[in-house]
Write a structure and sequence with these properties.
Elements: H1 3-71, H2 78-87, H3 93-108, H4 112-132, E1 135-137, H5 142-156, E2 163-165, H6 170-175, H7 181-184, E3 192-194, H8 195-212, E4 215-217, H9 233-247, H10 253-274, E5 281-284, E6 287-290, H11 300-312, H12 318-329
Antiparallel strand pairs: 1-4, 2-3, 5-6
Amino acid sequence: MKPTKRHALAVVLVNTQLAQAYDDLADLLTRVISDIEQDGKKSFQADLFDSRDRANGLISQFREVLDAYQSTADIQHASLRLEKIEAAFSTPPDELLTTCDSHLASVVNDERPHIVNAYGKKRKLLFEIFEQLPIEVDVSCRQFLALGNRLFSEYQSASKELQLSINIHDDVFELLPSGWDIMIFPEGEQEKVNRFSLEAAWFIALKAQLKTFNCYVVGGQKYGDPNQQLISWDEYTELASEYQELSDIPVDGHELVKHLKTELADIARKTDDNFPNIKGALIQDDKLVLRRAYTKYKSDTLDGLRNAIKQHMPKASIIDVLTDTVRWLGLEKIFRPQSGHDSKLTN
């Protein structure tokens, strides 16, 4: 092979491997974000399950207090009555207040706080992947990427501030997942944001934008710029007429729509005409029902092949087949007696 061709193939190989590496990183990024969302939802479901026990405990304690209150209704001295009610507390009141707050928080909130907690465990990994990916965006996501770069800069600065002063553009709000406003602005101020909640929401939005190619990875293939895979308008002009001759598909927009409509109408008409003859398919309650299809197809060629195989296949017992298989594949190294000890058989 000539050196120039060899060098060209080497460059193609390097570009292909680099694109694969970028795609693997982007896959890992989306997978980690999905795991964070799933972990948050599972944690929320577990918290709801625990809240049932908390609610039962609080109701039981409240009943004991009410019972003590009712039983001391005839006591004239308020101090003595209060002592009886205080004695009914099986748990200190301050602990009961904490339990009440936890229960109310679990009922009011949803899985978003749990997602933020799960995000904290994978935060470093996500920013490390983001640093290695050359992400670019189309016009609609420029402000979105600018916000991500700002959050990455704050992460690199090792700042421990929980709140940041960031003015989020209106275009970014349309891309962030819905319902996260209360998490991003816990104090209700539009310029004071909770950085961890905003980061989690931004990465969730990034996963969605990578799938729609509003954000793409420069040099990637699966997550690369889809416009790079299209031909130029000059090439289109040269190849359009040739493509139309070979495929019989119009390249003019209006003619193409007319062609597709006609083709679809023909297919629908043929389907309607042949539908009564299709076995296993019927319309029931305005719905298409498909049943298992059985065929009575017979082929002399298939029967001849089956008979020829039977004639040329030597007869062998199942013991011989098992013995040969074990000897060829060394299966005796995999299977062991249930006792866990090695087999005493040498053959």
